[in-house]
Automatic annotation (TrEMBL):
Organism superkingdom: Bacteria
Keywords of this entry: Hydrolase, Signal
Database matches in Pfam families: Hydrolase (PF00702)
Family to which this protein belongs: Belongs to the HAD-like hydrolase superfamily. S-2-haloalkanoic acid dehalogenase family.
Protein name, as recorded: Haloacid dehalogenase type II
Span of the signal peptide: 1-26
PANTHER family: HALOACID DEHALOGENASE, TYPE II (AFU_ORTHOLOGUE AFUA_2G07750)-RELATED, HYDROLASE, HALOACID DELAHOGENASE-RELATED
Length: 252
């Protein structure tokens, strides 16, 4: 009798699966996120314009990479020491530190402002608009969560022409703790009125996906050129070379 019940249950599950749209069958129903939370810098926006400018300014092919590492490092110093300066302030300080490390003179304030303003004038990666369009049509709610300041992210998204895709543009300046602090991800979930387990962070940084998973969110890693996952962290639920690839895995 138990065998017959098991057989009938299997038939019922198969029939239910057959009736589902293919987009929903692409992933387990229990894991389907209700909200997609996007990192902005490098994930959505192409930083090469800023990279070229900083490399040319400091006459070194690795200047941008060093500057960006300092920017991230000292944002975490602020977070762990209970201090807070917005991303622009830390970016300016990182330019001074870069100049000092290279034995060069610190740039004038006006020049630093010119360089840092470029972060608000970046285009989206080519895959981003088609992917966001498909995700929007598939019914996903979408928002951003960035280490950029609130005013900066508004300029970034407006310049890139992505505003119509997102219901909220969230910044860490609300909690004054930089990602990957768990409070930043939990703040985003509270603002969006969604449980962490129903939220998928999509980011091109292994430290970001690691932080999201530790905070109870799902995560997707966009393997942009030069990016890598943190081997000691829990693996993200999805990995792909572009946002479009993540969208396909989500059934969009």
């Amino acid at each position: 009798m138990s065998t017959r019940r098991t057989f009938l249950s299997s038939l019922a599950l198969a029939a239910t699966a057959a009736a589902l749209p293919s987009s929903l069958m692409a992933m387990p129903l229990a894991a389907r996120p209700k909200v997609l939370l996007f990192d902005v810098n490098e994930t959505l926006l192409d930083l090469r314009k800023l990279q070229r400018a900083i490399n040319e300014e400091f006459k070194w092919e690795f200047a941008f990479k060093q500057w960006f590492s300092l920017l991230l490092q000292y944002s975490l110093v602020d977070t762990t020491t209970a201090a807070y300066h917005d991303f622009g302030q830390i970016g300016a300080a990182a330019l001074d530190m870069l100049a000092q490390s290279l034995g060069q003179s610190a740039r004038p304030e006006a020049r630093k402002k010119e360089l840092l303003a470029l972060i608000t004038e970046l285009p989206p990666h080519p895959d981003v608009v088609p992917a966001l369009t498909r995700l929007q049509k598939a019914g996903f709610r979408m928002a951003t969560l960035t280490n950029s300041s609130g005013p900066a992210v508004k300029k970034q998204i407006a310049y890139a022409g992505l505003g119509s895709f997102f219901e909220q543009l969230l910044s860490v300046d609300v909690v004054q703790r930089y990602k990957p602090h768990p409070d930043t991800y939990r703040m985003a979930c509270q603002k969006l009125q969604v449980a962490p387990a129903d939220t998928l962070l999509i980011a091109a940084h292994g430290w970001d996906t690691a932080g999201a998973v530790r905070a109870g969110l799902q995560a997707a890693f966009v393997a942009r050129s030069g990016q890598a996952l943190y081997p000691l962290a829990a693996a993200p639920a999805y990995t792909g070379p572009t946002v479009a690839d993540i969208a396909r895995q989500l059934g969009a």
